[in-house]
């Protein structure tokens, strides 16, 4: 596969799409691909203007892109609302341009909505979280219309599973994914349940 070639490994006909950016896409992809009803998750770039962005450009902060994931899901099994809840629970939506050790605008928190209904759901959920005092600080997640998603290079796809000994995966991603599996056990695909 060439850089930015389509990375979707399954037939996505009839599936809905959701696009989120919440820090390093290796972690974000690992969370969503474990959920029942999610058929594919692709790591990539969204929120910028340049055609065919590369990881080198995005990770250096040389573009307006965020590391993002595109989630292909069956809305009969998992709802957009449930995806939103997972998204907000698996990263810190109160830190501007930063998630853990990763910093820069490429790691910002963004929900890219595809319809007025999705925007309403996102806005309502953020308001609900704020009113409940879920976070000590204000939520800084951007809510932007979806425009374009560029698949990341092939070596970024399914990175967590394929690179278990990568130092970043071992020290940063694995603890987060294990916590996620514990907190969302009832929503996990059978192969990720105890």
Automatic annotation (TrEMBL):
Catalytic activity: [thioredoxin]-disulfide + L-methionine + H2O = L-methionine (S)-S-oxide + [thioredoxin]-dithiol; L-methionyl-[protein] + [thioredoxin]-disulfide + H2O = L-methionyl-(S)-S-oxide-[protein] + [thioredoxin]-dithiol
Nucleotide-binding listed as a keyword: no
Domain of life, source organism: Bacteria
Keyword vocabulary terms for this entry: Oxidoreductase
Species of the source: Pontibacter saemangeumensis
Family note: Belongs to the MsrA Met sulfoxide reductase family.
Gene3D superfamilies attached to this UniProt entry: Peptide methionine sulphoxide reductase MsrA (3.30.1060.10)
Pfam assignment, any one: PMSR
EC number: 1.8.4.11
The protein's name: Peptide methionine sulfoxide reductase MsrA
């Amino acid at each position: 596969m060439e850089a930015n070639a389509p990375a979707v490994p399954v037939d996505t006909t009839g599936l809905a799409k959701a696009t989120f950016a919440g820090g390093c896409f290796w972690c974000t992809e690992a969370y969503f691909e474990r959920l029942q009803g999610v058929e594919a998750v692709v790591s990539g770039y969204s929120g910028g203007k340049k055609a065919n962005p590369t990881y080198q450009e995005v990770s250096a902060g040389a573009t307006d892109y965020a590391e993002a994931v595109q989630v292909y899901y069956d809305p009969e099994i998992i709802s957009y609302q449930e995806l939103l809840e997972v998204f907000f629970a698996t990263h810190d939506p109160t830190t501007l341009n930063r998630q853990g050790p990763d910093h820069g605008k490429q790691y910002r928190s963004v929900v890219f909505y595809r319809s007025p209904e999705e925007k309403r759901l996102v806005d309502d959920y953020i308001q609900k979280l704020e009113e409940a005092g879920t976070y000590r600080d204000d939520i800084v997640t951007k809510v932007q219309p979806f425009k374009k998603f560029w698949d990341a290079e092939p070596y970024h796809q399914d990175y967590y599973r394929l690179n278990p000994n990568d130092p970043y995966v071992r020290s940063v991603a694995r603890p987060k994914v294990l916590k996620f599996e514990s907190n969302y056990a009832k929503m996990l695909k059978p192969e990720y349940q105890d």
